[in-house]
Amino acid sequence: MKKIILICFAALVVYACKHEIIVTKTVPTNLIYVPTSSTVLLGTAGNSATPTIDNGGDAVVFSITNTTDAGISINSKTGVITWGAAVAVGTYNISVTATNSIGSTATTYVLNVNSSVTAPSSLVYNPASSTVVTGISGNSVSPSINTGGAAVTYSLTGTVPSGISINSSTGVISWTNAVAVGVYNLSVKATNNIGSVSGSYSLTVSQTQAVVTPSSFSYNPASSSITQGTAGTSATPTINNGLGTITYSLSGVVPAGVSVYSATGIISWNTSVATGTYNLTIKAANSAGSITTTYSLTVTAAPVVTGVCFSSQILPLYQSFCAQAGCHNTTSAQGGVILDSYANIMNGIRANNPGSSKYYTIIGRSMPPSTSAQMSAAQVALIKQWINEGATNTTCTASCDTTQFTYSTSISALFANNCVGCHNATTNYLGVILSDYTSAVNSIKTIGTTTFLNAINFTSATAAMNMPPSGQMSSCQITQITKWINNGYPQ
Ligand code: HEC
């Protein structure tokens, strides 16, 4: 216990110390008066502007650190310098120091007290130039000047380019976004009632960089070889965009199922691309022009599965004809028999020996019950063939062709394998009968194509309505059924 308290205390100290280190104060910097000087007539009280400063995260105190006229003082909190009417004629270089708890910084403020008004002098912009791109407005800093003790008026002399102007009382030069490309050496004149002074300012307006035709467009790798039925994408291409925004597109003959993302240039293909070698031409365009490159996509036929495939041909039969609710699903398990997975089905199957596989021999004898839908002779023969081939747990994509979608070529078999066990003349959940052409079409029309397609796409409002309950059919099979419905149920 003591140890724990000690550790906690140590942790607390470390934590507290860390916090103290984070809040560091530094020496103040950047003490600046704008303007940096004042010129006044004898007998004129006045004050400087408030200076700006980086206080280093701590309060600063301002003070005048050289000896000046008794009539000159500083506000210790704001740094504003004030002079009275009694200050004698002369030039006062006032040293101002700003101090915080860590250190200090200093600057000089010049006060000229004249016996009479003089012409202005020392008109300087700092910086004395700006370089900008077309279409962007802006302005110079305020100039510094010795006003000679009287108000001055600023003006631009010579030919004033259109879009450039000066503020007559502050001397700030501004330019609009309409100023044309060019280098403008501006002459500024500051005048009081005695005379004037000239200064200069240079403004360079340059063209924004022009967009040029894109170049160096390529994909790496520049090809893909895939097996039919596999969706995928290319890598992102590299390109010199010529300073423009690129839009990608496929040109020439575009095979069905292949597309390109217009913003990224990534080529994508879906599962329906037919076999073949496609030399794709991809165009990349910006506002100045375009460039093309090629990409080769080779789609080879999926290897033919020899023999009966368990996952696509046998499992759906047991699931649809036997593993229904109330019969042989995990929950009901009538007679302890569950027929919803390879492991469970193998409890009654002996590889290479159909005669002693009770989950095969019973089919058509007492199971499914005579009141339920019966497997066709072809379906029973398929189970026998699978057992004779070794009853292995093969997983494969059902050979499927989305261009084949008539009832006789594809749909009838799909329903028979996946649905008819639960949707036949005898057993027909929600009245859906899929065991013959006329009933299937009528059932779909009655329940509505949207409801039906939601069921097979697994997008029903409730999961229980997703069909078949044992798991979604392949996307190719779903496409076949969708096309069959959308094309008016071809026989
Ligand atoms: C294992 C039995 C079983 C299989 C196999 C089966 N269904 Fe169903 N089906 C049901 C049950 C049970 C319901 C009713 C669900 C409910 O009321 O919650 C149903 C309901 C439906 C509905 C109505 C859904 C709705 O939203 O109203 C459709 C359509 C349907 N099935 C189509 C099919 C299709 C197509 C197949 C084959 C691809 C199939 N079913 C396979 C048991 C099955």
Can you put this structure into words, describing what you see?
This protein is α+β, with helices and mostly antiparallel strands and 491 residues long. It folds into 5 domains: 29-114, Immunoglobulins (Immunoglobulin-like); 121-206, Immunoglobulins (Immunoglobulin-like), CATH 2.60.40; 215-300, Immunoglobulins (Immunoglobulin-like); 310-388, no CATH class; 407-486, no CATH class. The protein is built from 9 helices and 27 strands. It has helices spanning 2-22, 310-321, 342-345, 358-361, 377-388, 407-418, 437-447, 449-457, 475-486, and strands at residues 29-32, 37-41, 46-47, 52-54, 61-64, 72-74, 81-83, 90-99, 104-114, 121-124, 129-133, 138-139, 144-146, 153-157, 164-166, 173-175, 182-191, 196-206, 215-218, 223-227, 232-233, 238-240, 247-251, 258-260, 267-269, 276-285, 290-300. It has a 4-stranded mixed beta sheet with strand order 2-9-8-5, with no helix packed on it. The longest helix has 21 residues, at 2-22. The protein is elongated, with a radius of gyration of 45 Å. Heme C binds at residues 319-320, 323-325, 418-419, 421-423, 429-430, 432, 447, 451-452, 455-456, 460, 464-465, 467-469.
